[in-house]
C-alpha cells in the first residue's frame, strides 16, 4: 500500500520532505521509499481515476474537504 501524489517535481519532493520531517519529530528512525513516474504530456491522471470511480459508483466520493464542510455546518 502506498500514497500517490501528483505535481511538479519540486512540489512532490517538498511534500516528501515535510512528511519525513514530521515523522522524524517523533521517531528516531524513518524509512521512506519513493517511486517516481514521469510521463511527458500527461497531467491530471489522479483526477481522471477519481472521476472513473465516481462514474462506476454513480455518486461523488466523500473527500476530506467535503467531510470537514459537513462537520462545520
From TrEMBL:
It holds the Pfam family Thiamine_BP. Residues 1-54 form the Thiamine-binding protein domain. InterPro entries: MTH1187/YkoF-like, Thiamine_BP, UPF0045_domain. One of its GO terms (cellular component) is cytosol. Belongs to the UPF0045 family. This is Thiamine-binding protein domain-containing protein.
Amino acid at each position: 500500500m502506498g500514497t500517490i501524489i501528483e505535481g511538479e517535481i519540486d512540489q512532490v519532493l517538498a511534500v516528501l520532505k515535510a512528511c519525513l520531517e514530521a515523522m522524524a519529530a517523533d521517531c528516531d528512525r524513518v524509512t521512506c521509499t519513493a517511486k517516481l513516474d514521469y510521463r511527458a504530456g500527461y497531467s491530471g491522471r489522479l483526477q481522471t481515476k477519481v472521476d472513473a470511480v465516481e462514474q462506476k459508483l454513480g455518486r461523488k466520493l466523500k473527500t476530506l474537504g467535503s467531510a470537514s464542510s459537513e462537520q462545520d455546518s
